[in-house]
Amino acid sequence: MAQVVIKRKEKGDLFAPLSEELLTDYLAGKQNGKGLAEWQRERFALAQAVATPTNKDEDFKYVNFRQLRLNDLRPIAVEWQSWKQGKLLAAGVNTESSIPEDYAVEQVQGDPESHIFYGSFAQAQQTHREQLHSALDLIKTQFPARKFALYANAFLSQGAFLHVARNTEESTPRQLFTRFAATESLFSPATVAVVDSNARASLVWDIDSEENASGVINGTMDVIVHSGSHLNLLITQHLSRAVDNISTIRIYLERDAQLEMAMINSGGKVNQMEIDIQMAEQGASALVNGVYLGRERENFNLLTHQHHKVGNTKSDLFYIGTLSGKSASNYLGKITISPGAQQSDAYQKNRNLILNHGCSVNSSPKLEISANDVRCSHGVTTAKVSDLEMYYLQSRGIDYATAKVLLADGFISQVAPRIKSELLRDGFARRLEALLNRWGGH
Length: 442
Prior knowledge:
It is built from 8 helices and 21 strands. By secondary structure, the protein is α/β, with parallel strands linked by helices. The chain has one domain. The strands form 2 sheets. Strands 1, 4, 5, 7, 8, 10, 12, 14, 16, 18 and 20 form an 11-stranded mixed β-sheet that branches. Strand 2 (82-84) and strand 3 form a beta hairpin. Helix 3 crosses helix 4.
């Protein structure tokens, strides 16, 4: 009897469109300076050597990168549109001349501008080259090489560098507003923030996109907080339905350094975010609060890593989301306690609320503990809104869409009391309110 053999079709490398020829053509049209171009080529070579992530990797077991479409995308290089009062504006095309009111932040009196550098990578090459490249080298050596983050650096669309000098008091928050308005484009923004010893600073990065925008945003944020310093960090992403997003956030905390971070994610098709926080020296602490809201067919892939490299460190992470339409969330949270990191204190919680049938949730907490005198806890909860609950609201004259917005608002309101910084709490509440108002309007 003849035996039929069916050969499986090779899928090829997802990142193959990001070729060396494409990089050469791209760099030829940029004016970042020789040193930065060499760094970009180095990152490209590293990206080529790193294996493509698959579902066989523990960190990406729920992620389907095949949903990303990198073919025929045009890498875009964007110049700063304006720079005033500690704010940078950037976009693919047609940026607004000022930051929208929804993204406003509180103004704080503080140390003079001379204590803070805030500008583009190209400007930093001229005045703060040593600090910039020292930060880039530290991130390279202390964090695992991720293929998408390396490609983001290689095809850098735009870079913002914040350097806060030692002993600087709290000052007006530095703010970066990025509006992606291009079509069929690859946009790779990067932000690097360095806070020197015994200083306080705040940084806000808002990314949104116009309704007709399409393509991929592949961005990175790298943060180094030196000993005795404190950084408030607010990150929001609100994307249109034809935009895929990959974000890599890496944070390195030295002795007694403190980080408070708040995040909001919404929109897009594939929304992949990796947050890697390293408590590298004793006394380091991180408080992280995040919200994601799915309304249509968003696919949130969230990976968080709290790495306690030494003892007497603390991390507290709370990530919650509401899902509607046919949206999905995949969360993998990992806590690592290195050998000898005694008296580490780590907490992690993921909560989900499903607002209608057709949504899906995968949530997988993971502990890797190599010390015996620690306190680690994690938890996952997923709840569904019942038909009876929805009927009750509608019977009170509330339409179906508004009922879902009210339920989502009530569920994520549990985040606000956890935010200690008044500046973060106000900015977080303002952005969340605007987002829910837009949701209700649709």
